[in-house]
Amino acid sequence: MTFFEKRGHKILDPRPVVARWREDLYLTIASIVLFQPHVTSGLVPPPANPLVVSQPCIRLEDIDNVGLTMGRHLTLFEMGGHHAFNERNGKFIYWKDETVRYSFEFFTKEIGIPPELLVFKESWWEGGGNAGPSFEVTVGGLEPATLVFMQYKKNGNNLEPIPLQIVDTGYGIERIAWFTQKTPTAFHAIYGDLVNEFRKKLGLEEPPKEYYKAAFRYVGLLDPSSEQSVSMFIKNISKHSGFDEESVKAFLQNDMKLFTILDHSKTLAYMLGDGIVPSNQGEGYLARLVLRRALRTLYLINPEIDFTDFIEKQIEYWKQDNYKLKEFHNYIINVVQYEQKKFYELVKEKIPKLLQTVVSNPNFETFEKIYKEQGIPPELIVNEAKKKNISIEVPFDFYSKIARESSRPKLGKKQEVTTRLEWLNNIPPTELLFHVDPYLRESDAKILAAKENMLVLDKTIFYPLGGGQSSDKGSIEVDGKIYNVVNVEKYDEHVIHYLDKNIEKDAEKLIGSSCKLKIDWSVRYLNMRHHTSTHILLGVLRKVLGQHVWQAGAEKTPEKARLDVTHYEVPDPATIRRIEDEANKVVLERLPVITKFMDKNEAEERYGFVLYQGGVPMSKRIRIVEIPGHDVEACFGTHVSNTGEVGGIKIINVAKLQDGIIRFEFVSGTQVTNYASKLESILNEVSKEVETESPLLLNRVKKLNQEFEQMKNRLNLYRDIYSEVFRENLKSKAEVINGIRLFVYKDEIDDEEFTTELLKEITREMREIIVIRIFKNAKGTSIEVSEGRESSEKLNATEIIKALSSYGCKGGGKKDHAQCTSEQEINVDDVWKMVKELLEKKG
Fold first, then answer.
1. Which of 169, 399, 450, 690 reaches 20 to 30 Å from 558, CA-CA?
2. What are the CA-CA distances from residue 595 to residues 531, 555, 592, 622, 734 (Å)?
3. Domains of the chain by range and CATH?
4. How far, in Å, CA of 463 to CA of 638, rounded?
5. Which residues lie below 8 Å from residue 811, measured CB to CB, with a gap of 6+?
6. Any binding-site annotation on 494?
7. How far apart are CA 53 and CA 167, in angstroms?
8. Which residues, including other chains, have CB under 8 Å from residue 72's CB and lie 6 or more apart?
9. How many other C-beta atoms are found inside a 10 Å radius of the C-beta of residue 488?
10. What is the rounded CA–CA span in Å between residue 499 and residue 688?
């Protein structure tokens, strides 16, 4: 860093490993990602020019290669990048010659690499939608740096020049450390004493030095994506180390296990330290992929080993480099413990059931489906198969393929509005008066465009649908005619007002006319209250549950609001009460709600990326909504001027929306009263039902509950007596036909669930028995057939149901249990006689 600082580069603080400023990427995979797309598109100036940064990056596309290549591949690595942003028709910083010279000086003078070993190989680079020529810098087969000269934007197969010519370099800090320290592997250079600590804890034997010497000699030739190349790698190590191939393979497999735990535990600590919550989607899914791959490795070594011990050591080892590891320590450990417990329960329950599925179709698609739907790693199923002497293999490159498929959001195609809005060409942008003064209820405006039932004005007080906030309603008056506004939407710089009438025939006459705008203030104010409450609640959730909490969705309507956040479990009632109390304290404090526009770089430097809870605006200047000391976000919505205007916040429902996402539903202001009124009505109705007054309801319910428990105990006693009597009847009244005990009876007891379970229990105990129950219900006469295992082999229940179709009995079931219903009266003796004949025929 200081090498480039001395050469005029400003040192930039690293950003999170979660790309919070990107909507098309989950993780920070390179230092250039920090500047895409806002800076690289020319929309926003760079934070410094030139600059240098050492950025922690996570790439999971090569996760299966971790350990195999001795450290060439890591899921988490430090990328040193110096960058210069040259304007094509403006300020020029430096380009290819200076970049290559810097690199040559750095490696030869700073690192001490002999010049004759340094090779600059011309290549081509593409990434993040950009492209350009590059130099791959190699030393003896190892590539410690890549120098990219970004000049183009990729549009399909076409390359379009971008406004800037960008120097984009990537220096592999771990590879440089490996080279300079001359350790057996990069892991020894990165983790130092942790290598032996982890090896001892895992109980893995250390390979001989001769193995490492031979492996280092050939690792530069290894193509880990080729099974043939891996096989040749093992042969070459064997040839030059003197160990047989089986021994080499054992050394390699042990080291891969060790290096997987080293690599994955650090990666996971960094991911969780940046607030990722493991889940089944997005960056949470990628964190769970890393975690479960590590747990899979531990499980195969020794399922009794606790993964949190390794995480603890990583936090302690790296906390000086990454302060968030210390800040998020408790959260990281709690999540790992929670996920580990869940994973082992899952493995115990699922693997035996899934084995047959894999054995019948052992291909990548089967393993992929099981992994994505059940969360079970393929190695554990293969391990279970080996115990049963069944030979199946894990698909090659399995996790890398999963990671490649899941590394980016699947962005849906944006609604195509270009053709539809051609009528707005050359129309000036709409002035947004609701941002100037959200309390404006009426205003004058001028009609600039009209089509079908749509109006575009020079300015508007109507808030358009966006940011989870519903649009305003109201009216527009033109020449004495009043049009109701039923919806409002924003497309680029234009706000479109949708009317309840088609004005196509008057369009030409309306353009240029003045009009009077009036919003439905009750709708607007409720939306303002609910939107401000969302900011209050989010700030409280981050305070109470932890700074890992991140908005995953929100909706604000006049009736109520909802906020979806990332968290690993549903809070208990006491915590929910605390959250609600803390939110209402913020309301009572009457804190100002400050709105302002700021340059993007300035806002990020002051507030960080917590700004982008609700999304990332693609603009040079962003609108900030701040409740000082509590919450700050980039937000487009309308808000009250201070928290006191919210009136109050009542959480009405908390539920797990999906794995890792918790939904909070709440109401504010007058809607709290409405909610209380509904609850009061329900209480009054319940009080009437239990014949008491509302204030006495709790005592009444407690008493009823006691009586209910007594009734349940009494009912269980009666059931036991009935069961005993029923079994006695079976012994005395059942008829044995061809070795099968047959009993047909009419049931007068209205307890179908109990009776069905009793019959199933009896037929499990007495294998050679058929019990037929006839009972009345609303539809007519029903017949239930229950059978033991032996009897169902001679005459199964579905055959009996089929024979009863002559009585108009319709139904079905399984071999051992079936049921049908008929509108006709069915006699017990007739059924007994019919089944007896069927059994005699089976002989």
1. 450
2. 13, 20, 10, 10, 84
3. 2-186 (3.30.930.10), 243-406 (no CATH), 422-519 (2.40.30.130), 525-677 (3.30.980.10), 734-842 (3.10.310.40)
4. 8
5. 783, 801, 818, 819, 820, 821
6. no
7. 13
8. 65, 142, 175, 186, 219
9. 21
10. 47
d(CA 837, CA 843): 10
**Which two structure tokens, joined as six digits, stand for 331?**
């959260």
| Residue whose entry in the numeric block shows the structure tokens 């919003």 | 519
Closest CA to 169 of 144, 140, 142: 144
Burial of 346 (0-12, 13-18, 19+ CB in 10 A): middle
- Between CA 63 and CA 399 the distance in angstroms is 7
Q: At what angle do helices 209-218 and 227-241 cross, to 10 degrees?
A: 130
Q: Which amino acid is at 315?
A: I
3-state SS, residue 486? strand
Say if residue 817 carries a ligand binding annotation.
no
CB burial readout 467-485, b (16+ within 10 A) else e: bbbbbbbbbbebeeeebeb
Task: Tell me the chain's radius of gyration from C-alpha atoms.
Answer: 35
Q: How far apart are CA 737 and CA 715, in angstroms?
A: 35
Report which secondary-structure segment, H or E, holds 631: strand 631-634
Q: Is 567 annotated as a binding residue?
A: no
The pTM score is 0.84
Q: For residues 52 and 227, what is the distance between their CA atoms, to the nearest angstrom? A: 39
Are the beta carbons of 292 and 375 closer than 8 angstroms? yes
Least Cα distance to 383 among 297, 306, 291 occurs for 297
Q: Which residue has the tokens 């051609």?
A: 422
Coil, strand or helix at 206? coil
In a 3-state reduction of DSSP, which class is residue 796? coil
Name the nearest CA neighbour of 593 among 528, 547, 506, 509. 528
Token readout for 31 is: 């230092």
Q: Is 661 in contact with 564 (CB distance < 8 Å)?
A: yes
**Burial (CB count within 10 angstroms: exposed 0-12, middle 13-18, buried 19+), residue 3:** middle
Amino acid at 460: T
Alpha-carbon distances, residue 668 vs 121, 554, 640, 649 (angstroms): 63, 15, 12, 5
For 250-270, give the DSSP string: HHHHHHHHHHHHHHHHHHHHH
Question: Which residue, among 546, 663, 609, 657, has the nearest Cα to 28 in the 3D structure?
Answer: 609
Q: Would you tell me how many other CB atoms lie within 10 Å of the CB of residue 599?
A: 13
Cα dihedral sign, 93-95-97-101: positive
The answer, yes or no, to whether the previous bond of 37 is cis (omega within 30 of 0) is: yes
10-residue mean pLDDT series, the chain (843 residues): 96 96 93 93 94 98 95 96 94 96 97 95 90 94 94 90 95 95 96 98 96 93 92 96 96 97 98 95 95 96 96 97 96 96 91 86 90 90 90 90 88 50 88 97 96 95 94 95 96 94 90 96 96 98 97 94 96 97 98 97 95 91 96 96 97 95 96 93 90 88 92 90 89 89 88 84 88 89 91 90 91 92 91 92 77
Sign of CA dihedral 518, 519, 521, 522: positive
57 marked ligand binding residue: no
Task: Indicate the DSSP class of residue 135.
Answer: E
From the list 555, 529, 542, 803, the residue with the least C-alpha distance to 641 is 529
Residues paired with 599 in a beta bridge: 621
Strand, coil or helix: what is 632? strand
Rounded to whole angstroms, the Cα distance separating 679 from 683 reads 6
